[in-house]
Specification:
The longest helix is centred in the middle third of the chain and has 22 residues, at 87-108. The chain contains eleven helices and eight strands. The protein has helices spanning 40-52, 60-69, 75-82, 87-108, 116-125, 138-148, 160-163, 171-180, 195-204, 219-224, 237-240; strands spanning 3-4, 22-23, 25-29, 129-133, 156-158, 188-192, 208-212, 229-231. The radius of gyration is 17 Å and the shape is globular. The strands form two sheets. The protein has a six-stranded parallel beta sheet with strand order 5-4-3-6-7-8, sandwiched between helices. A two-stranded antiparallel ribbon has the order 1-2.
Amino acid sequence: MTVPATAHVNAPAIAPAPVTVPAELVVLDMAGTTVRDDGIVERAFERAASETGVAERMPWPEAVDYVRRTMGQSKIDVFTHLSGGDVARAERATAAFERAYAALIAEEGVAPIAGAQQTLERLRAAGLSVVLTTGFAPATRDAILNGLGWRALVDAALSPVDVGRGRPAPDLVLAAVIRSQASSVASVVVVGDTTSDIASGRAAGAGLVVGVLTGAHDRDALTAAGADAVVDDVSALPALLGIDA
């Protein structure tokens, strides 16, 4: 089944008017887009940096700023940059980050963005395929999915290691197209809270790329990165796609 999707508009956060583009697949980011972050990514980074010294070559504020700017990208890529290209140290830092993130989830639990689960249910009920993507390793991704009980709500969940390259490369989106057997990349809607999400959708040739304001980057950054629409959160997505309640 296809539904109308909004294309090439800077949509307001409330009641966007749908325009016609056939949509078959929705590719959504996890942390900050469908899953609440609450600063866990930064805190996990702090623990990993403290354990491994991966960012010691630069001032701490500069390292934290880089982590914020690269939210959504593959963690191994982020740590490789912070370590000045020291791949072995980056791998140790990535493993430490994943352990820290898993520990924080165990300590504090994991929660969806308000309205995210209902949005996933409505997308599936409308006949669309739904794929979640993330810069996390599969173990962390799966811990989040299991904690939320979302496995039955999505067709697939993909990490960079599953597809080749992480964001901002198009690989996660293109792999989702192949997994879902969508008829074309033009039938894909990509949704995310970071400029890397937007860049990945643009690079893949997605028919509609949507930014949400529940995560790392603001409206101006998402628009400048090439978002066709920016909405407050994923609960606005069904209306944007013309899906009736």
